[in-house]
Amino acid sequence: MRFVKGHGTENDFVILPDRDGGLELSAAVVAALCDRRAGIGADGVLRVVPAKLSAEAVAIVDRAGEAGGPPPRGADWFMDYRNADGGLAEMCGNGLRVFARYLVDAGLAEPGEFDVVTRGGLRRVRLEATGDVTVDMGRPVVGGESWASVGGTEYDGLVVSMGNPHLACVTGEPVARLDLTAQPGFDPAVFPHGVNVELVNAVGARRAVMRVYERGSGETRSCGTGAVAAAVAVAAVAGERTGTWTVEVPGGLLTVELDEHTSRLTGPAVLVAAGEVPPVALV
Ligand SMILES: N[C@@H](CCC[C@H](N)C(=O)O)C(=O)O
């Protein structure tokens, strides 16, 4: 089976086109593909499946219609996202930007704006003339406060749902110094399904530096949903709710726009390799 490798600010993905919707992906196969020594290596897998061939995607589109959302534009493809450990996640902001780049480059979608079905709902993507890809990430849902512990130190953070769970901890301690080799501790009563933890420094007018430990993938060089959560948290510290933030991650720069209704994530999305996965790697 064909694969394509891509990344968005070095958050990297194995893309598996599944035109007939017949690919069963076990957690073990996903973990093997994502293995950086014995596999292709990635933070996650993006299975590209026609929405109409996935019962899960059809249900998501139906629910969006019942909720009175805007009529879908396109929504022909379902992003079946898996973390590097093989677990499912609701949303992946960088993955979706790379997914959109793949669809257009493969001739499966027209350049411009279209919707993609994700477990977090329908998400509109736009391919910019600059080559960047923007995703309408929806309205961040801010919960209360919680904590994460990193290297024996506890950090307070803001609970933010971007479809998937985040704890964005704004700290004065330079995040570059933190040891994120181990899963940060967190409150399982607040996050029964695990959490993505962002450690964030506010470094100037609407600019933040972020590191992230992702649920199911470990420390990654970028996280799109995490960048939006980080922008929401630094904005809250500044007493703001809207505006445009630059979020500096180890893998590059992301732009996050917050308005009263939604959030948008913009950044590069590139495809870097393609090849063949031997059948033995898929069992
Ligand atoms: N890297 C992604 C987030 C992927 C999912 C996350 N690890 C989770 O389990 O929720 C992004 O760019 O948003």
TrEMBL record:
EC number(s) given by UniProt: 5.1.1.7
UniProt record, GO biological process: lysine biosynthetic process via diaminopimelate
Cell compartment(s), UniProt: Cytoplasm
Chain residues that bind substrate: 11, 83, 93-94, 164, 196, 214-215, 224-225
Catalytic activity: (2S,6S)-2,6-diaminopimelate = meso-2,6-diaminopimelate
PROSITE patterns linked: DAP_EPIMERASE
InterPro entries: DAP_epimerase_AS (IPR018510), DAP_epimerase_DapF (IPR001653)
Site entry: Could be important to modulate the pK values of the two catalytic cysteine residues: 166, 214
Keyword Isomerase included in the entry's annotation: yes
Pfam families: DAP_epimerase
Physiological role: Catalyzes the stereoinversion of LL-2,6-diaminopimelate (L,L-DAP) to meso-diaminopimelate (meso-DAP), a precursor of L-lysine and an essential component of the bacterial peptidoglycan.
HAMAP family, per the entry: DAP_epimerase
Annotated family: Belongs to the diaminopimelate epimerase family.
Protein name, UniProt field: Diaminopimelate epimerase
Organism lineage string: Bacteria, Bacillati, Actinomycetota, Actinomycetes, Streptosporangiales
